[in-house]
Design a protein that fits this description.
By secondary structure, the chain is an all-alpha fold. The chain has a single domain (about 65-300), classed as MetI-like fold (Orthogonal Bundle), CATH 1.10.3720.10. The protein has twelve helices and no strands. Helix 1 crosses helix 12 (about 265-300) and helix 11 (about 255-260) packs antiparallel against helix 12. The longest helix is centred in the first third of the chain and has 36 residues, at about 25-60. The radius of gyration is 27 Å and the shape is flat. The relative contact order is 0.14.
Length: about 300
């Protein structure tokens, strides 16, 4: 059978050399250029934000930034030391609340759930919760913890802020735990059951350690998301111009400090807001790089 569209040499062998002038090759190059152009457009806003924050934030970096309190309105100098510590405290509380609940929920879905409808409902609810705006989590915790003074009569507090952030972390932790455990081979489970191991021993000694890396990746990503949230903390942790005074008191955080200081008409506060933005971006970037490194280990 002959194909007239294919050029042939004198010996009758088809000429398969690349022809740049062919229509399909021109279209392929054009689409490649367009795809690259749109890829650059997609990354350009991120690069612009990072470069601008780098330029504005690095100029304000100094030792006082990490060791001193913010100055009063119109004052000079100062730092954001209380907000750095506050962010670490609130994020740590959120992590301690979200990891046991999220990992436990993921273990139940992957290892123990037998009711198909119930497990589907939990997974559906987790996906819905992942798409809920962060301010809704703040309003929820405000109504349950802050306004009711359920925490020994206290209102705004670091623990309330941590509870709000833990709500945002839960979907990621549950989903990554569930998916990570599903990646563990069923042969390992059967082998454990074959030698008389219980379900608890199988999960705790075999499947959970095998799925540690993807679970840790999900935890790190959830921490990175929670660390940059502002709206939930305005309703729960509020703000404080002083050093942290316990988890049952209002506490400063970097995200809320940026929100407050960026709107003030004082140059010093504006510069501190840029410096805090730089610190927060670096922190989140480090967490994302750590998550990518853990993901690479998991793929190997």
């Amino acid at each position: 059978m002959k194909y007239p569209s294919i050029a042939r040499s004198a010996e009758g062998i088809p000429d398969l050399n690349y022809k740049s002038w062919r229509k399909r090759n021109i279209s392929s190059r054009l689409l490649s250029v367009l795809a690259g152009f749109f890829a650059i457009l997609a990354v350009l806003p991120l690069i612009a934000v990072l470069v601008y924050i780098l330029i504005k934030g690095v100029a304000s970096l100094n030792l006082d930034l990490f060791t001193k309190l913010p100055p009063p309105p119109g004052g000079e100098g100062g730092g954001v030391g209380n907000a750095i510590i506050g962010s670490i405290v609130v994020t740590s509380i959120a992590t301690m609340l979200a990891i046991p609940i999220g990992v436990g929920g993921g273990i139940y879905l992957a290892e123990y759930s037998t009711g198909r409808r119930f497990s589907q409902f939990i997974r559906f609810g987790t996906n819905v919760l992942a798409g809920v705006p962060s301010i809704i989590a703040g309003v929820f915790v405000y109504g349950v913890i802050v306004s009711t003074r359920i925490l020994f009569g206290h209102t705004f507090s670091a623990i309330a802020g941590g509870a709000a952030l833990s709500v945002l972390m839960l979907p990621t932790v549950v989903k990554t735990t569930d998916e990570g455990l599903k990646l563990v081979s069923n042969d390992l489970r059967r082998a454990a059951f074959g030698v008389g191991a219980s379900q608890f021993v199988t999960v705790s000694q075999i499947t959970l350690p095998k799925a540690f890396t993807p679970i840790a990746t999900g935890v790190v990503l959830s921490i990175a998301r929670a660390a940059g949230e502002t709206a939930p903390l305005i309703f729960t942790a509020l703000f404080s111009p002083f050093w942290p005074n316990g988890i049952f008191e209002p506490i400063a955080t970097l995200s809320v400090l940026i929100y407050n200081f960026s709107a003030q008409p004082y140059e010093v506060q504006n510069q501190l807001a840029w410096a805090a933005s730089f610190i927060l971006v670096v922190f989140i970037l480090v967490l994302n790089l750590l998550a990518r490194w853990l993901g690479r280990i998991a793929s190997q």
